[in-house]
Structures are given as C-alpha cells and as structure tokens.
Amino acid sequence: MLLLTACQTIETSNEVSQNSPPNIVIIMADDMGYSDIGCYGGEIATPHLDALAADGLQFRHFYNAARCCPTRAALLTGLYPHEAGMGGMVSDLESDPALGAYQGFLNDSSITIAELLKSAGYATYMAGKWHVGEKPEHWPRQRGFARYYGLISGASSYFTLIEEQPRTRQMVLDDQRWQPPAEGFYMTDAFTDYAVSFLKEHTRQRKEQPFLLYLAYTAPHWPLHALPEDIQKYENRYQVGWDSLRNERYRKMTDLGIIDPTFRLSPREASVPAWMDAGEKEVWAQKMAVYAAMIDRMDQNIGRVFEQLKQAGAWDNTLILFLSDNGGCAEEISGRNLNDPSAKIGYPGSYVAYRKPWAIASNTPFRRYKQWVNEGGIATPLIAHWPAGITQKGVVNNYAHVIDMMATCADVAGIQYPSQFDGHPVKPLRGRSLRSFFAGIPPDDQERTLYWEHFGHQALRQGRWKIVSDAPDNDWALYDMEKDPTELQDVADEFPRVVEHLSTGYQQWAQEVGVRQQQP
Description:
Helix content is 30%, strand content 17%. By secondary structure, the chain is α/β, with parallel strands linked by helices. The strands form 3 sheets. It has an 11-stranded mixed sheet, with helices on both faces. It has a 4-stranded antiparallel sheet with strand order 14-15-16-17, covered by helices on one side. The protein has a two-stranded antiparallel ribbon with strand order 12-13. Helix 7 runs parallel beside helix 10 (281-311) and helix 9 runs parallel beside helix 11 (355-362).
C-alpha cells in the first residue's frame, strides 16, 4: 500500500463527482477498538470493510472524542462537543444536569450535517444510535433527517429494550416510539433493515437526488449479545488469551503497514493479570468470542448496504466513511444487576461486558481505552471509499479528527458552511475537509492543533507533540508522536518550554469552548 506523505501531488480527473454531488454514507461502530477489524490488524472476519479499505484510503491517525455522545456531537456538527452542548455524558446530563453542567443535546448554535445537506437538496436518512438528545424536540427529524429508525438513548439489549432506571430506553421510527417484536429481533440487523429500506425507497421515488445516510450501529458496545451462528465461528478462537492476541495483532498490523516500528507495543497494565495467571479462562474466552461475533455481524450487515448501493447504481459516486466513536471499552457493568447468571454469555438474559483485559487487546498497540484521551481511547480506524472521487489509495499518515466530517461533507457536496441557520447564529466550523487526501495531497499545515477533554481527561496535539493529563490538577505528560506514537516515554522534563506553550494553548481553548472542569 502507498503511504501518503506531505509532499506527494498527482494530477486527478474527477469528472463524475464534478458533474453531480456524491451520495454520502457515514457508518459508525460503537466502542470498537483500533485493531478489531481485519484491515487494521484484527482476526475478526470483516471482509466487506477489508475490501472497502483495499480500494480506498485507510487513515493511520484518525481521532474521535473519546466517548459515545461527544464523538457523535462532533461528527454531526463539525464543532468540539462542548460547543455543541455535549461535553459530558447525555445519560447523566439529562437526568441530573448538576452532574455534568452541559445541556445534553445539540444546541441552536450548531448545524448538523443533515440540516446542511438537506438545505442544499440532499435526501437525509439515519438508522441507529442517536445519543445526542433524548427528548422528542431533540430527535433526529428535528435536526435535519427526513427519515429515522433507531435507538434514541445509549446502548441496550440487542434482543429487546431493557428499562434501566432512572432512564427509559427508546426506539423510534421517524417521530413515533417503536417497540421491538418479542421474537426474531436483533438490533444490528434491524438498523440495517431500515437503512436498506430507506435506500430502496429513495431509488424508487427520487433516484436523481443525492442522499446522506448516517448508519450508527450499537455494535460492539455492551451488553455482549450475538446470534448463535456468529458466536460459533469464534467459540475456540480466544483460548489463546489477551497476551497472545495482542502480539498476534501487532505483527499483522506491522505486516499490513498500518503501523511501523515506531509503534512499540504498549505493556499490559499492572491491574491486568497475565493470561496464564487469569482465572475463569472459559468465561473470558466466551466474552471475546461474543464480542467478535458482534463485529462479524456488523460487517455482514454493512455488506447488505453495499449491495443495495450497487444494485441502485449508486456505488461509484457514493463517498463511504467508516469509523468508531471511541476505543475499546473497559467498563464493568455487573453493578447494573441486569444479568441472569443462568444465561449463557451472549444469549438473551445475559448482560455483561468484555472489560479491561480485552479492551486493551482491542486497542493494540495503544495504551488505555474509552473515556481516556491517550491513543487507546481516541484513535479510530477511518476508511474512506469513493470510486469517482478518490484517486490515490493507500494508508494516510497525517492525523485528522472527527470534527473534519462536516467540512468534508460540505466540501464534496459543494456547499458553503453558513454563519447562521434557521434564524440562529452558527459557530464557526472547527474541522477541515479531508478531500485533499483523496487526491494524495495532504494539507499544507502539518502542525494543526487538536484538543480533547472528557470529564477531566485532557489532551492537545500539535504536530509531533502531544500533551496529556488525567485530571485538571495533574501534571502534563508530553509525548513525541513521531518517535513514540504509542505514548510510552514521557519527555515533559526534557522539554518544559514545549509543555508550557502547549498547556497555555489548551487552557485558552478550554475557556473558549466552555469546558467545565470535572473529575472523571
């Protein structure tokens, strides 16, 4: 594969995309680690995503916002989540605003990708997890989507809806609450059923109109639920344990060119036992088998979407973007008391997560996981595919961020980002278009500054340098991302002026976007 660098340029011919705006399909996985899919080093069967990557672009350093709802807010608006009203967790914020100090839904100072594209003549569809506003006045059809089917709140059982006090899980079809059937329901399949249905309806009724489809899966977010035929594929795969799996993935990633020798494999955390010392190995292996089955099923369903695009004659002029909302999840959910101990892991009645040891494996070769702003929490695969518009394929080495999605969609659609919308001023766009990468021409500015904050976890990256702090009153760690992209050597003591300069910039940004300092 070709590694794109800052100095490469090529001549391009983009006749199809110049003549007609592309369709846009954004597919997001939930709580999926950097190395889980095959084309990023994983052993899980993801042939449709692998084929997409082989015929498109893979970003080596693409960033999300560390957790579900902040990333979704940033993707939809092109703003940092704090500016869009989503700095914390929506589940906490809407039930008790004092816990988070953010409003917990997208504000009127932002415009969504759907609102922008709809104003320019796009048909707009969404299926999947919303998670950026739970009241009806904040649902997808109020923010630009013409059709919607999915889960309004955070993750739930894949086989039914579980009421988890004090919250109410809601599924919605357009503007009406929708109850899953008692039998034969699996959420990943259902999201795809409706996504494909929307595309078929579009082909029948308005084929010449460009469309946006935002397909936000809950897979592989806990609870670990999968279909028996998918679980069976992996029943014996993870007896090797997390240590061997990390080494296996690391070697494959190097062979694929997704990483190079500067990406040293991070050590196992002290709180995680060596596999040889772990108890209940069968239980641990079953958890990872179900997690793998969930990703496998998601890829099968993505293949259904791809097939519909091809049948409709839309494949060549559709920009497809695939990513995850944060790294693998280390959360322990046993305190929720929703698990039936007699139910086999992965099947109805069970309600468990795969936890820290496997999350670290999912995020190979990085440190940490969801919620943290080390690379394990914020690094995501990004695959970009557009036969009519991407002329340079391979691995992109430059870094980019989920705030760039809005700018990219506006750019390829030929739409000017507005200063106001629906009678309200709109905050200036934070992201930048990725379109230059599609022609093998990275942007001139290789020192762009990116920022993160989530419940007191803080980071800034500027060129080769990245500072990270686990809490507002902690010292900053400094990493040289060119020499040490897995953040294993803190060089803050060697470069105090760099730390001072970057930390000052971070504080200015935090004040500008309205960060409320909170402990994680």
